[in-house]
Every structure is written in structure tokens, then in C-alpha cells.
Amino acid sequence: MERISELIFYLAFASDLNLNSSTSSIALALLNCGSVIGRLATGYLSDKINPWFLGLSILASTSAATFILWGVLSYDLAGLLSFSLAYGILASGWTSTWNGFTKPLSRKYMYALIRWQYSNFVNSLNPLANDPNLSTTLFGVLLFSRGIGNIFSTPISSALTSLHSNSTTSSFTHTSNHLGFDVGGGKFEKMIVYVGMCFAGAALIALVGWVMDAAIRRRSFGRQEQQS
Asked: Where are the membrane-spanning stretches (predicted)?
């Protein structure tokens, strides 16, 4: 998702706003600056806040920023710069939450999860409770998924922008041209919707994970109190 947005946004979107290369470089600089801020802030928060809740907040905020700042307000330079900074801070922070997801795998929380789901096999699965290889494996899976996204970002973005040239009407009916959806004759509309919906779908998955994580924690803590 991050690669798709950057590719379309900086190679074509800025030029359709009739911005010169110097102005476009400012937007790119804001994106990179926001990325640094976002990763540092999210890395700090991942040690303080439940990673599922943090991921949910990041993904939902990025989805809202995509639809509002890019789709609605990015019809001029001010909207473009606002989206660059907001997207850099929000979207780039996702990878900094990975440590929060993998850290519990090498602690007693993993054992509590296993015991809750597989109580009949707890003795045989007990060695997994403090196995550092689990967190390493999960990091590998997360990096692999990101690599797959980077590979498919170009054909997906090309397909979405080419759909506009094959259609005569836009899926949104606008009363004015002062919307980011309308830039370039509306050819970025499907891309904006796609990116925003991807983040919204990911936020929904994070919400389910947060609810399940809270249920597991309550169950495991309740058993510990009964035993004590």
C-alpha cells in the first residue's frame, strides 16, 4: 500500500496539479520527514501500548487521511503537502509495531495463549513458551508479506489508473472540481479508493486481533488469580 501510494502520488499526481519539480520535491521531503517522525514515535509507543490497539489506530488514521487529505483536499499544493506529512507519519509507523507483536512470543504470554487454546497438549507445547525462534519467524513472515506488496504494487497501480481511460464516467459524482478525486480528470479516483479501503480492511483485522487478544489476556489472568 505504501509503495502504491508513493508511486502514483509522486510520479503522476503532482504533475497533474501543474506543480514543478522543485515543489514536488518539497512534498517528497515532507513525506520522508514524516516517516522518520512516525517510525520513532511508533517505536516508542509500541513499548507502552498494546500493539493491536496501536496498529488499529495507525491503520484507521491512515485510511481517514487517504480519503480526506488525498481524496478531498489534495486539489492544490496545501492539500498535497498536508497529505504528504500525514501519510509519512502514519503509514510509515506500521513496521515499527512489529516488535510489539513479536515480543510476547518469547514470554509467558505465549504459554498462556497455548494453554488456553490447547490445554490438553500443554505439556508437549511448553517448550514453545520461550522459544526466540518464533519471533524471528514472525519477522520473516512480515517482511515477506511486505515484499509481496512491493512486487505487485506497480501492476496494481497501473491497472487502476488505466481503468479510468477505459470508462467515460467516474464512480463519484462531483458538483465541483475542487477535490483530490478530480485531479487529472479523475484518473486517480480508483487508486485513492483502493488505498483507503486497503487500510480500512487492515484496520478491521487489527480490531478483531485486539478483541481476541483482550479475551485471551482476561482468560489467562483469571486462571492465574484462581490458582493463587
From this structure: 52-73, 79-101, 191-212
Burial category of 13 from C-beta neighbours within 10 Å (exposed 0-12, middle 13-18, buried 19 and up)? buried
- Torsion on CA atoms 218, 219, 223, 228, rounded to nearest 10: -10
Residue 173 carries which DSSP code? -
pLDDT in tens, 130-162: 556 777 788 888 888 888 887 887 788 778 877
Single-letter code of the amino acid located at 76? D
Closest CA to 180 of 84, 60, 94: 84
Calculate the alpha carbon distances from 122 to 86, 117, 118, 125 in Å.
46, 9, 6, 5
Q: Which of 198, 183, 223 is nearest to 8 (CA)?
A: 183
Q: What is the chain's alpha carbon radius of gyration, rounded to the nearest angstrom?
A: 21
Which tops the pLDDT comparison, 215 or 166? 215
Cell of 33: 520527514
pLDDT of residue 169: 47
3-state SS class at 140: helix
Query: Cβ neighbours of residue 118 under 8 Å, at least 6 residues apart?
Result: 125
The domains of the chain are located at 1-163+184-226
Contacts of 72 (CB under 8 A, 6+ apart): 79, 179, 180, 181
d(CA 11, CA 199): 22
**Residue 20 has what DSSP assignment?**
-
Superfamily for the 1-163+184-226 domain: MFS general substrate transporter like domains (1.20.1250.20)
